[in-house]
C-alpha cells in the first residue's frame, strides 16, 4: 500500500521559502502569482492491506516525526 | 563541576563545545551517544551544533526522537542546566523543551559570520556574568535560524523575560536591519519557563580564545559554572 | 541489458560509445586475447578514459619535482602527505568537478567536495580545512548567476554538513568559461605521520570489504563524460548526475577513522570516479595481486542492477578496503554503530587477474596490470604559445583618471569582495580557524598545539594564456607568497590542471608550458608537488577555456603567536612595499 | 485559481532525506515501512480564470524554477 503525506505550514506561519520562491517567480516575469507556499510531500510504501490500520499508523508517524505540529499541518491519502 | 555533551550522528561542533566546557569547568565533559538511554550525573548538559541526521526532514527533528532525549527531558524537568546551541537549539525545540521552531533563514542562505547580540536578561544562570543591555560579539553559522513562534507565545516569552539574546548591530540597535535571519522580534536565544534550558543560534563556543578573534563567549560558560557552584 | 546477459555483441558502435578509438580497441583485443564481453569493455572504457588514465598528461606530470625532506608521500596515492613536525602530517589534494557542476551546479559541486574529502580521509587524515578554486563565465552571461549560486550552495551544503571549515579559495569570471565552468575543490587533513593508510592491496586470501552507501545507477559513465568535450546537446546527458549525501559521508568519515585507530586495515581506497572499477584495479595493481569480486554481494539501492552497472556506478560515499583476515566481525561492528552498509564482496588472489563473479558465473575476467599500469600513454604533438608583443606603456594614453580607473577595478567582478561567497561557508567549525577567508591564505590551528596550517589556492589564467611557462611559475609563486604573508613556511603544493582539448597542439603546448613553469618554480622555491589532478577537454563548441593550472599551497606556522593578517592594525601605520 | 505542484526526485536518483526518514521511522518502531521518498509540494495562488493558460504558465515556472529537471520530475494540478 502507498501513503501520500502532505505537510504544509499552518496558516499564519511565515514561509520564508515560499516567499523567496514567489519573489524569484516575479523576478522571472511571472506577475500573475499572488502567493506561494512551500510544503513537503512524503510518499511511503507500506506493508499490509488494511487501510484503516495503515491510516492510523501513518497518522502516528506524522504526529511523532513527519510533521512539527507547532508550525505544520498534515494530510494523509492512501492509494 | 561535571558536564556532558550529547552526540547525535551528524553533529559536528562537539569538539568546539567540549573545548569551551573544559575551559570553563576545568574538566573534560563526558560525551554521551544518542543511542544511550541514561545520562551520567552532571551539572551541565550541552547539545552542540552540527547537522544531526543531515538536517534532513527538519533540522533537529530526528535527533529529538533519539533514545537519549528522554533522559535529557527528565534532567530538564529536574532543573539541570541544559544549553542547546544552533542544531542543539533546533533539537530542543523539536523535543518540546523550548517553544517555537527554527525555520530556513529569510535569505535562504547559510550564514557564517560574527554578529552582535544584545543581552536582554542578565539574571539567568546563562548570563549572570553579563549586564543586561550588554552587547556581545559571537559568530553564527546556520541555515535555519529563523525563530518562529505565534504572537501569543512571543508576548509571553518577552513578558516573562525569557528572551535572552537578540540580534543587534555594533551599537546595540535591535531593528529589522540588524535581524540577521528573519527571526521574529530579532530573537537569537530563549529560555524555558523554569529558566534552566537555554537554546540559542549563535556560537559562544567559537568565541573563547583570542585566536578566535574575540572572547565574548567565555562569560556565557562562566555563568553556567557560577550558577551551578 | 538483462542481469546476466554477458553476451551483448560488441559492435564498433558500442566500442565508440565507450570512448575507445580503434587503436585502443586493438590493444584491448591484444590484452584480452579475445573479444571482451560488455562488462569488460565497460571496464576498459573507464580505466582508459583520460580522467582515470592520465593518458595525455602522464608524460609531462612525471617531470614535476615531487621530493623534499618533508615529503612523506608524493603523487600517486589518494592524496599527498607532508611531515609537519611533532609526529604529525598534513594530507592534501585538489580535484576538479567541472563538467558535473556545469550540468547540475549544486550536486556537481557538492559531490566534488565529498570526493576530495574522501581522498583525504582514506589516507587516515581528519579533514581540517577545505578550499575551492572557481571559474565562471562573464558576470552578465545568462547562466553565470545560476551556476555561481548553485556551486557555492553546493560547496557549502556539503562542507558545512561535514563540519569542515572552508577557509579560502579564489573566484574568477571570464568569457572563456561561459560554457565550461571550473570547480576545483581542495581538502587538507591532519594525520599521525606513523599512521598513514595506503591503497596497495596485500595478503592473498584477505577479504575485500565494501563500506558506505549502497550502489545505485548513479553517474554511470560519468568518468567518460568528464573526458569528453561539451557540445550543445550535452545538457541532455543529465541523468548521470549524482546526488551527494553529506550526512552519510560524515558517518563514513567517523567510522573509517574509528576503524583506522585499530590495526585491522591492510589497504583502503575511496570509490570515486569509475567507482568499484578503478578502486579495485588500483588497489590490486599497486599490491601486485589479483582479486575475485562477488558482485552479487554488493549492497544495491535498486532492483535489477547488472554487473556492468555495479562496476561502473559512481554512487558516492563508498569505500573499498582490504582487511586482515578474521577482522570482519569487529570491523562490521564499527560500521553497524554508524549505521552504514558493510559487505565482504571479494577476496585477494595470486592470479593478478580481476575475476568478476555474478551468482557463481564469471561475468568478467581481466588481467590487472595492463589495464591499470600499461594503459595507453600519448606523447601528443604540441606547439609552444607564440610570445606576446611587448606593450610600451608610453603608447597607451590614459583615458580616465586614476580615481576612475581605481573605481572600475574595485567594481570589477574579478576584484570585488567575495564575502557573499565565503559567508555561505561555515569557516569556523572545529574552533580552530585563525585566519578566515578574505585574506591571503586561510589558517587553521592544529588542535591542541600552537601550530598552524596555512592553505591557499591560486592561479591567474590570463598570465598562463599569454605565456604558459611564466604563468605556471607565477601561480606557484603567488601561492608561495600568500602563505608567507600569513607567517607560514610554504611546504608543498597540489595542482589542478584545467585545460582544453589536448588533441589540439596549441592547447597541449599550454599544458606542457605550464608544467615546465610550475616545475621550475617548485624547484626554485623548494615547494614540491605532492598531489594533483588533471581535467582536460574543457571546451564548448570547439573553444577552449583559458589554461588554468590552479595551485593549492600548504605551509606551516610553527608559532601562532607570530602569524600575520591582512588588516591594517593602526591608523598611523607606515606602509612599506618590498620585493621587485 | 490555485495550482498545486508536486516535485519529486526522478526514479533511481538517490534520496538522502527519504533514506534518513525511513531509518528514523524504523528507529521509532514503525517496521511496516518499505520505502520513503521525500519531495516538495508547492501551492500557488494565481490571477485569472483561464485554466489552460494557467497550466501552461505553471509548467513554465516548473521548468524554469520550481523543479530541477536534471534530477526531479514535477506534476501540476489546478483547483
Ligand atoms: N570560492 C571561494 N571560497 C572561499 N573563499 C574564497 C573563494 N573565492 C574567494 N575567496 C576568498 O576571497 C578572497 C579574495 O579572493 P580572490 O580575489 O579570488 O583571490 P586572490 O586574492 O587570491 O586573488 C580570498 O581571501 C579568498 O580566500
From TrEMBL, chains A, D:
Major subcellular site: cytoplasm
Physiological role: Part of the phosphoribosylformylglycinamidine synthase complex involved in the purines biosynthetic pathway. Catalyzes the ATP-dependent conversion of formylglycinamide ribonucleotide (FGAR) and glutamine to yield formylglycinamidine ribonucleotide (FGAM) and glutamate. The FGAM synthase complex is composed of three subunits. PurQ produces an ammonia molecule by converting glutamine to glutamate. PurL transfers the ammonia molecule to FGAR to form FGAM in an ATP-dependent manner.
Protein name per Swiss-Prot or TrEMBL: Phosphoribosylformylglycinamidine synthase subunit PurS
Catalytic activity: N(2)-formyl-N(1)-(5-phospho-beta-D-ribosyl)glycinamide + L-glutamine + ATP + H2O = 2-formamido-N(1)-(5-O-phospho-beta-D-ribosyl)acetamidine + L-glutamate + ADP + phosphate + H(+)
Pathway membership, UniProt: Purine metabolism; IMP biosynthesis via de novo pathway; 5-amino-1-(5-phospho-D-ribosyl)imidazole from N(2)-formyl-N(1)-(5-phospho-D-ribosyl)glycinamide: step 1/2
Keyword ATP-binding: yes
Sequence similarity: Belongs to the PurS family.
Location(s) in or outside the cell: Cytoplasm
UniProt organism field: Thalassospira povalilytica
E.C. no: 6.3.5.3
GO cellular component: cytoplasm
Classification of source organism: Bacteria, Pseudomonadati, Pseudomonadota, Alphaproteobacteria, Rhodospirillales
Family annotation (PANTHER family): PHOSPHORIBOSYLFORMYLGLYCINAMIDINE SYNTHASE SUBUNIT PURS
Annotated InterPro entries: PurS (IPR003850), PurS-like_sf (IPR036604)
Subunit structure comment from the entry: Part of the FGAM synthase complex composed of 1 PurL, 1 PurQ and 2 PurS subunits.
GO BP, one annotated term: 'de novo' IMP biosynthetic process
Keyword list, A-Z: ATP-binding, Cytoplasm, Ligase, Nucleotide-binding, Purine biosynthesis
Top EC class for this record: ligase
Pfam families: PurS
GO MF term (any one): ATP binding
Superkingdom of origin organism: Bacteria
UniProtKB/TrEMBL annotation, chain B:
Gene3D superfamilies in alphabetical order: 3.40.50.880
Coiled coil: none
Active site: 86 (nucleophile), 203, 205
Enzyme Commission number, as recorded: 6.3.5.3, 3.5.1.2
Keyword field: ATP-binding, Cytoplasm, Glutamine amidotransferase, Hydrolase, Ligase, Nucleotide-binding, Purine biosynthesis
Gene Ontology CC terms, in alphabetical order: cytoplasm
Any one GO MF annotation of this record: glutaminase activity
GO terms, biological process: 'de novo' IMP biosynthetic process
SUPFAM superfamilies: Class I glutamine amidotransferase-like
Pfam family, one: GATase_5
Reaction it catalyzes: N(2)-formyl-N(1)-(5-phospho-beta-D-ribosyl)glycinamide + L-glutamine + ATP + H2O = 2-formamido-N(1)-(5-O-phospho-beta-D-ribosyl)acetamidine + L-glutamate + ADP + phosphate + H(+); L-glutamine + H2O = L-glutamate + NH4(+)
Subcellular location(s) of the protein: Cytoplasm
CDD domains linked: GATase1_FGAR_AT
Pathway where it operates: Purine metabolism; IMP biosynthesis via de novo pathway; 5-amino-1-(5-phospho-D-ribosyl)imidazole from N(2)-formyl-N(1)-(5-phospho-D-ribosyl)glycinamide: step 1/2
NCBIfam families named among the record's database cross-references: FGAM_synth_I, PRK03619.1
HAMAP family: PurQ
Assembly and binders: Part of the FGAM synthase complex composed of 1 PurL, 1 PurQ and 2 PurS subunits.
Function: Part of the phosphoribosylformylglycinamidine synthase complex involved in the purines biosynthetic pathway. Catalyzes the ATP-dependent conversion of formylglycinamide ribonucleotide (FGAR) and glutamine to yield formylglycinamidine ribonucleotide (FGAM) and glutamate. The FGAM synthase complex is composed of three subunits. PurQ produces an ammonia molecule by converting glutamine to glutamate. PurL transfers the ammonia molecule to FGAR to form FGAM in an ATP-dependent manner.
Protein known as: Phosphoribosylformylglycinamidine synthase subunit PurQ
Species annotation: Thalassospira profundimaris
Gene: purQ
